[in-house]
Amino acid sequence: MEDDKEVPSKQLERNNNERLLRQDLAQETDKNSTKYKEFKKFIEELQAELNKKTGKGNKDDDRERERERERESKIEELRKRIAKLEAIVNRTPQQEQDLQDKKAELAELEKEKQQPQEPKKTN
């Protein structure tokens, strides 16, 4: 009779252990997947850097990234200049005009940044 009671408890313990093992396996799989993705991204970055240093790779992409960095730099600089001009309480007409010009230039750059890149045309 005691064997009858032990069998279900052993079965429960076994099922519980299997469930825990499956959970552990799923967690490890998720970790490995994340590590793989991070490693793949790292390798791609290294490859891009190596291509840039050796002159290989897509020069159009490099130029586009450079233009984007320049645009971001210019936007940041314009924001600083606008903040300085706005901090002036009694602006001269020249300063007021400069402020309006900077705001217009900033708006144009931000609009340019927001527009999706046009697909490249091939002949």
TrEMBL record:
Residues 1-33, 48-74, 89-123 are annotated as: Disordered. Residues 1-22, 57-74, 99-123 have a biased composition (Basic and acidic residues). This is Uncharacterized protein. It comes from Glomus cerebriforme.
